[in-house]
Amino acid sequence: MIRRGRAEGWLNEPIEALPTWATFRGVKFDGIKVGPLPGFEHRGSTVIADLELVSSQAPLMTVPKEMILSRENIELFAKSDHHLRELLHSLGTFAYSTRGTVLIFLLMQATLCCPGVKDVGVRNPLVEYVKFLPDELLPTFWTEEELELLIGTTLRPAVRAKMNSLLREFETVRTATETIDWCAKYWWHEENGLITFDDWMQVDAMYRSRALEFPGVGDAMVPCIDMANHASGDATAALYETDEEGNAVLLLREGKEIQQGREITITYGDEKGACEIIFSYGFLEDTMTSAKAMFIHIEIPDDDPLRPAKLHVSTTAPGFRLFDKEGTHVAWDSEFIWLVVINEEDGLEFKVLQTTDGKREIQAFWKQQELNDTSLRSNLETDPLWDVYQLRAVVLLQDRVESQITTLREVGSPERGDGVRQGPWELAARLRTLELDMLQRALSTLESQRAALLDSDTVQRYLGLIDDNENQGEDEQVDFS
Asked: Coiled coil where (predicted)?
């Protein structure tokens, strides 16, 4: 519908029409404008200084609170729009999340823009705003040949998981709404239905690439402010927040001076890694020299007799996170890893308990103490064999990092095929370089940690390299078996 609908008559509105739309909707610009940056038109539209700007407390832009695409505002729209209300109600728990609510709202606004759609919904100011949003070349829109360039990177499994998730969501939406008369007519009709999976990908891309976390509002899309491009660190020119009345405002950072015609940038999150930036926004800053953060999948071995129970009780992502710490070294973090390296002989066990409502559930215990979602590590930290458990984790992570490095090196730098676009080609190449560098630095960190833990007295005793009787009195002996 979104792409096909444009071909049938619903075209993108030219960005030159945005000021008129904004004025009628109460959006205020002060010394700025929205449009292509001269010399960088290929980057699309952005926020530009229309005057020379000096640090000031006055907002550069003010967007009325009723124009914010938040879950709260969409629920207010639904009170006067029974079609929207019916739609949200049919989707149950999926529409309880902000993302679910916004995606359904965007899909309905796109529907109202299509020629031939009549007597559906109540038109609101945000119908026209959807027309100003450009198509986003996120990795979910890359071709299979382009996705092959990502083999060995953390982005490849992330895109695969996202596509599977989007397919499940699309089927959920179809199943929940196909019995609604107007949805059956305009969305799912066998011959003339407007909605395809591509449309669901489009509204997901709109939200994923433009949602910002606003104080007091939460995740939301904010018209016009969401046109601002990203820059990290000192290059960030402006901040976004809400004022006392709940309006969204764009403020110049203290001490910043922006010359006329220069770009007004915001940050989408300075701590986000290269994989996440490409995944959500489809670009990388030219100044990015580190992958910053990576999430690498790990699995519980098939020969672990407790594997089914561990997977059943696990509530954390099955992997570990590498990240640059204070710009000096690569650190790692994982809750899942401790569930992988601990076994029954250590003191981990599972019991089937009956709940108060008569149902049965599996509960994990550590040395007879009931565990909750996050208490395993805290229990292990106070255990006499903590250094042993850390060593197991470090060895497992070291092997996993080495295998990831091997995969990246084996694939190397694939040649660019005829069907591969320049943008995905360059992004994939940069991501491979940044992640390989981080993995190599992480391997060095893990090797140092492994060596230090092997020198630990606790590990030495556990391995039988130190005789306890030579170092402890009879009353202090500990069983490390």
From this structure: none
**Residues 300-356: tens digit of each pLDDT:** 999 999 999 999 999 899 999 999 987 778 999 999 999 999 999 999 999 988 777
Render pLDDT for 74-133 as a digit per residue (tens, 0 to 9).
Answer: 999 999 999 999 999 999 999 899 999 999 999 998 888 887 888 888 888 888 888 888
Q: Are 80 and 122 in contact (CB under 8 A)?
A: yes
167 and 312 co-located in one domain? no
Write down the residue that tokens 């996705």 correspond to.
147
What's the whole-model pTM score? 0.89
Residue 52 is predicted with a pLDDT of: 85
Are the C-beta atoms of 404 and 410 separated by less than 8 Å? no
**Contact criterion met (CB below 8 Å) for 71 and 98:** yes
What whole-number distance in Å separates Cα of residue 413 and Cα of residue 396? 28
Q: Tokens representing 374? A: 């996050």
**Those residues with Cβ within 8 angstroms of residue 306's Cβ, 6 or more apart along the chain or in another chain:** 343, 344, 348, 350
Are residues 439 and 310 part of one domain?
yes
Mean confidence (pLDDT) of the chain: 89
Would you state the structure tokens that stand for residue 164, as one six-digit string? 């599977």
Residue 249 lies in a domain: yes
Sequence letter at residue 159 = V
What domain range is 246 assigned to? 2-258
Return the closest-CA partner of residue 333 out of 316, 352, 350.
Answer: 316
254 and 138 within one domain: yes
Strand, coil or helix: what is 277?
Answer: helix
**Which CATH number is 162's domain given?**
3.90.1410.10
The answer on 210 and 304 residing in a single domain is no
And the tokens for 221? 């899309």
What is the phi-psi region of residue 288: left when phi exceeds 0, alpha when psi lies from -120 to 50, beta otherwise?
A: beta
Please indicate, yes or no, whether residues 250 and 344 belong to a single structural domain of this protein: no
- Encoded tokens for 159: 């895109």
Is the same domain home to 246 and 295?
no
Angstrom CA distances, 232 to 14, 56, 267, 309, stand at 29, 21, 6, 43
Do residue 368 and residue 432 come from a single domain? Answer: yes
Q: What distance lies between CA 241 and its chain's CA centroid?
A: 21
Strands (E), 108-247: 212-214, 218-220, 238-242
pLDDT in the model for residue 39: 65
Is residue 195 within 8 Å of residue 107, measured between CB atoms?
Answer: yes
Q: Is 283 domain-assigned?
A: no
CB within 8 Å of 477: residues ≥ 6 apart: 468, 469
